[in-house]
Amino acid sequence: MKILFFGDIFGRTGRRAVVDFIARKKKELSIDLVIANADNISSGKGPIEKTYNELIDGGVDVLTCGDHIWDNKEVEVLLDDQKKLIRPINYPKINPGEGYKIIEVDGQKIMIASVLGRVFTTEGLDSPFATLDEAIEKEKCDTIFVDFHAEATSEKNAFGHYFAGRVSAICGTHTHVQTADEKILEGGTAYISDVGMCGPSEGVIGVDKDQSIKRFLSAIPTSFEPAEGRGQINAVIVEIGEDGKAKSIDRINELTD
After folding, report:
1. pLDDT tens-digit profile of 67-118?
2. Residue 19: which residues within 8 A CB-CB, separation 6 or more?
3. Residues catalogued as catalytic
């Protein structure tokens, strides 16, 4: 099985780039399942119905998210169990939505989980380690794909080694900067610290570069707008065997027109 996973999709530029890439490349690359991180799909904020539908209609099978999941109130409708959006699993259970989804592809049962790190991110979260442990034990799926949305590479590295051999893939998101450390960990777990971003290539992690520079120079809070110009695709293709073990992980880093 080949899974195509897109890093954080940022705004309209990112959405268009992802939908175009799927249309051009899914068949050519023999992709069986498409997953994407939707944390910034609505002008740099979390999902709304319009942006959710654009990506699902464009060929994404499941959308994960991160700390921007609650940016727009209408997201609660999108977290219905019939939808294809999952929130981080380690938000307190009183919140709407689920942190993982189980689907079947060509007879293979797959668990897709969204997990949010705690270092430099959000207060009040449950442990990402313990919460995913519980879900794995409960569902007992051979194939498990994890989007670990976290800031600190140390937390991501530790998370990868902790779950090595027990999940099929751990793909980091959140920083919008692709790392070059893709590998197969002990026990057959594909790992990369950060898949990167699908969005404007000429901004500062997606936002207008002049606004970002002004913020650093002045230290005065300002609103950010998505950057204009060319887009980019940051993604990975993970190949997983019938036993749930990863065979390979390959990075994609492309500029779009």
Report:
1. 999 999 999 999 987 889 999 999 999 999 999 999 999 888 999 999 999 9
2. 54, 55, 58, 59
3. 68
* Residue 198 CB-half CA count within 13 A: 29
Which class in CATH covers the domain with range 2-255? alpha beta
pLDDT in tens, 188-241: 999 999 999 999 999 999 999 999 999 999 999 888 889 988 999 999 999 999
Report how far residue 110's alpha carbon sits from residue 233's, in angstroms, rounded to the nearest whole number.
25
How many angstroms separate the CA atoms of 210 and 202, rounded? 11
Q: How far apart are CA 36 and CA 38, in angstroms?
A: 6
Report if pTM > 0.85: yes
The residues spanned by each domain of the chain are 2-255
Calculate the alpha carbon distances from 97 to 14, 36, 37, 92, 253 in Å: 25, 17, 16, 11, 32
Indicate the SS3 state at residue 14: helix
